[in-house]
Amino acid sequence: MTRYLTPHRVALATGALAGVAALVLGFLDRPGPAVALLALAVLALTGLVVGQHREVVRARKAAEGTRREIEALRRTVPTAKQAGKVADRVEAMERRVLTALTTFQSEARAWNHSRGEEHAREAQAVKQLRSAVRAMTQDVDAAIQLHDLVEARDLIPLTGGWAIDTRSLHSLVSLVRTTRPRTVVELGAGTTTVWLGYLLERDGGRLVSVDHLQRYADATSQQVARHGLEAVVDLRVAPLAEVEVDDVTRPWYEPSALADVTAIDMLVVDGPPQRTADLARYPALPLLVDALADDAWVVLDDASRHDERETVRRWLEEIPGLTRVPTPADDLAVLRYQRPGASA
Fold first, then answer.
1. Is residue 131 domain-resident?
2. Which residues, by range, are in coiled-coil regions (predicted)?
């Protein structure tokens, strides 16, 4: 039977018994013990504040039953004088009981609200943790597949951080292996430069990679040399210059650095950095669309950021022949460009 004696039930029974005893002592004109037992009843009921709405409902029903019992007791009092005294005492006791129940209900609602917020935070934390674990698993799987695709001659630079993430790199590599571009232009040199260099070396293509900072270009150049990709990778320094696109001036790569490059089969946009300007990468397509091949691919990294989402939206709205292609990588936008009016 002990399994039925839960704390809630014990507290409820204590409160009910103390309340009944208080009423009986009140009718026997013993206010001291009656008040003490009434206090015990209130404490017992207050102890039920554990966020259980059902207990509040039961307490309301108990109060209603008590009220009916009090009315019945009033009708049994023999004299009007006694009835007046008892009625006053009972009404005072009834007010105290109802006040205690109201306080209990308010505290229960507040407790339920705070627990609800805590549960929501816990659920959100669990959701984020599961998402992080899933992403980590996918990154490991993508990294294993990537290194199976390329026989590197040296250690390849790490992904993540400032560099492209592993899943986005996997999607980019898969796209290059499928489309086999002959000329690729990369805006923002780094980890992808080495990977693209290996893929284009296999297919007989070439990579033109630009960066606006000499130190980053030098670091990438050293990696290219370590992997023996100098014949494939054309690394250029293009300082940021003021360019005008749609009557708005923004800092972007010095256009003359790419003036000799035409028939671009794939444009990989991973720069300039976000901090250089609002919509820092938007000028890429308006300025280079005429240099694209009639059937070309455009890849934008960091596509989950606000500026990059807005960049893609504007490109699709403003450039005829541009469509977005789904990709499993959330942080990579892949678009296909087919020049309007060009022969198939």
1. no
2. none
Domain range for 180 is 153-338
The answer to whether position 146 is within a domain reads: no
Amino acid at 135: A
Residue type, 194: V
47 half-sphere exposure, CB direction, 13 A CA radius: 17
| AA identity, residue 316 | L
pLDDT in tens, 3-55: 444 555 555 555 555 554 544 444 445 555 544 545 555 555 455 444 445 65
Same domain, 56 and 172: no
Read off the CATH number of the domain in which 280 is found: 3.40.50.150
Is 236 contained in some domain? yes
Residues in the chain: 344
Q: Are residues 170 and 115 located together in one domain of the fold?
A: no
Q: Which among 165, 181, 200, 190 has a CA at the least distance from the CA of 298?
A: 181
Please write the tens of the pLDDT for every residue from 204-226: 999 999 999 999 999 999 999 99
Total number of domains constituting the chain: 2
- Judge whether 158 and 240 are in contact, CB under 8 Å: no
DSSP string, 51-109: S-HHHHHHHHHHHHHHHHHHHHHHHH-SSHHHHHHHHHHHHHHHHHHHHHHHHHHHHHH
